[in-house]
Amino acid sequence: MSEPKLRKVNDFLWEIPKEGKMRVPGRIYASAEMLPDVTRDNAHEQVANVAQLPGIVKFSLAMPDIHWGYGFPIGGVAAFDVEEGIISPGGVGYDINCGVRLLRTDLQRKAIEPKIKEVVAALFRAIPSGVGSKGQLRLSAQEEKQVLVEGAHWAVKNGYGRPEDLDKIEENGKMQGADPSVISAKAMERGRPQLGTLGSGNHFVEVGYVEEVFDQRLAEALGMFKDQVTIIVHTGSRGFGHQVCDDYIAVMMRASQKYGIELPDRQLCCAPVKSPEGQQYLAAMACAVNFAFCNRQMITHWTREAFEKAMGMSPRDINVQVVYEVAHNIAKLERHRVNGKEMELCVHRKGATRAFPPGHPDVPEQYRAIGQPVLIPGDMGRYSYVLVGTQKAMEETFGSTCHGAGRVMSRHQAIKSARGRALHRELEDHGIFVMASSRETMAEEMPEAYKDVSQVVEAVHGAGISIKVAKLRPMGVIKG
Amino acid sequence: MGTRRHIELVDHTGDVGIRVRAAELPELFVLAAEAMFQIICPSCAVRKSLTRHVAVAGDDLGQLLVNWLSELNFWFCTEQELYGEFRISSLGDGFLRGVARGEKVDPQRHAIRTEIKAVTYHKLYVTQRDQEWEAQVIFDI
């Protein structure tokens, strides 16, 4: 294990000096107390590896929830000049557009507490979850192609949700440039039965409430208030996105050789953004992004229905509305100022969230005065956060911030540590009712397996790359 | 010297991996597939009522191993096929042919534990030392 060379820039920022084949320095956002976690698994080496890729501008960045990924670290942000730089499936990840949607209701915590078990059971029945979960839909190949092009718009058009939901989704729920002709038959087959499913692992639907408001003005602008019942949907593009990534890693292995790109790690395989391979990956990735947008839209629809049934209330009384939806694993063509010059960049965010500032045209009109909402889920036993993006993020991190807590314990360790414990009961003692597809999922996802998300959030707030708005506390969770 | 079969799970913060050792290369690929299905469904008793033929290409042994496991995982994901027996019929010159035998998942008998998103190249190796083959693969789960 190499000794990390981290130079302190300020209390929340550390720099890996440019050396060897690095084209730019690396920069990691973290508090001093978080550094041992960052360096323990050598994730900083991956930050330095990404800095070697052609066309990277300014810095190879990592957010405080950084941990080992494949090639690129999780929590990594890297921007490449569209003319000279590359695009890499490893910089997006296998679960393309894994992301989070936050819903708010008109309900108060007290209204739901006596019925939380019924609500969670209704959600568990309504939303297919677990390993290999299959949806209620029987899509034809033609319909699946429409989903890939239209994203969440397909769902709304087919009766899963409301038109106004779409305004509050990154990219308005439909990424442009999606082209189903560059998708393999395998990806189509793997995805078709999985639309409208939660999947397994760390994905969940969580019912909670606003425990603390940090900034009243920002919370009001988001339609949020203390003790308000909220819902978080965390899932992605399921087997469809996994297969797209897999397919294009094979393409990029060959492309890296073809274009003479030297790779410090095979998983960083890539192609010039403007090459045929790069353009095809962008078109394929957009298909997976749209699959995930549609997936979360359908889950939102079933969430609304489950709430109405379990609470015995009308849609108007509950009033489930989308606050916002962010992508955690995505690459985007965006314009940013670099050393005073405006450039078109291919920004990779892998386990990182876009955090655009007030006034940015890509922020929904309703939120343009406050900046883009940022949603940071924690673990099922503690809390999640809502923040907004800042101008400082635009200047320092290509408008990016963290995405979650990050694991500290392997799944195997977690299962071992949970042996003999009744995790269900422990969580219920804290007022959290959980239904999971398996005992192992519960154990793997137990709170101790994750970093305390508040440390991560304090670091990005302290660094000024996003601002805390509210803290949410879970009451009921369904786990895949 | 008898055949040494060795399967070990590798702990990884986010995910899980395997390390396998065998005297012969085809056996190494068989063990890797066995280990992957142990992750998907530990202690599953699998009947051999169906046969899946697999043929994959790869530039080197590492890529062949990734592609062999990815293909088996694809059939698990799409057709819910669980396998308990594997055979490699040819391996070399960038090509692998193999057979997996098993059955469709039966929820009454099979407690599926994990979904594997992908077989990765992260920390992947296939190497020969002291007349023994060893491979490591990390799965994104």
Give the percentage of residues in beta strands of chain B: 35-45%
Structural class of chain A: alpha+beta
Residue runs with pLDDT of under 50 for 5 or more positions of chain B? none
Mean pLDDT of chain B: 92
End-to-end CA span of chain A: 35 Å
* Largest interface, counted by CB within 8 Å of the partner chain's CB: A-B, 38 and 32 residues
- Give the overall shape of chain B, derived from the CA principal axes: globular
| Rg on CA atoms of chain A, Å | 21 Å
Number of strands of chain A: 19
Strand fraction of chain A: 15-25%
What is the N-to-C order of secondary-structure elements of chain B (H for helix, E for strand)?
A: EEHEHEEEEE
Helix content range of chain A: 25-40%
Task: Give the overall form of chain A.
Answer: globular
Amino- and carboxy-terminal Cα gap of chain B: 37 Å
Question: How would you describe what is shown here?
Answer:
- The complex is a heterodimer of chains A (about 475) and B (about 140).
- By secondary structure, chain A is an alpha+beta fold.
- In chain A, about 35% of the residues lie in helices and about 25% in strands.
- Chain A has helices spanning about 35-40, 45-50, 110, 115-125, 140-150, 150-155, 185-190, 215-220, 240-260, 275-310, 315-320, 390-395, 410-420, 425-430, 440-445, 455-465, and strands spanning about 5-10, 15, 25-30, 60-65, 75-80, 85, 100-110, 205-215, 230-235, 270, 320-325, 330-340, 340-350, 355, 375, 385-390, 400, 435, 465-480.
- In chain A, the strands form four sheets. In chain A, strands 7, 8, 9, 11, 15, 16, 18 and 19 form an eight-stranded mixed beta sheet that branches. A seven-stranded mixed beta sheet of chain A has the order 1-2-3-4-5-13-12, with helices on both faces. Chain A has a two-stranded antiparallel ribbon with strand order 6-10.
- In chain A, α4 (about 115-125) crosses α10 (about 275-310).
- The longest helix of chain A has about 35 residues, at about 275-310.
- Chain B has two helices and eight strands, in the order ββαβαβββββ.
- In chain B, strands 1, 2, 6, 7 and 8 form a five-stranded antiparallel beta sheet that branches.
- The longest helix of chain B is centred in the middle third of the chain and has 19 residues, at about 60-80.
- Chain B is globular and about 45 Å long.
- Chain B starts with 5 loop residues before the first strand and ends with a strand.
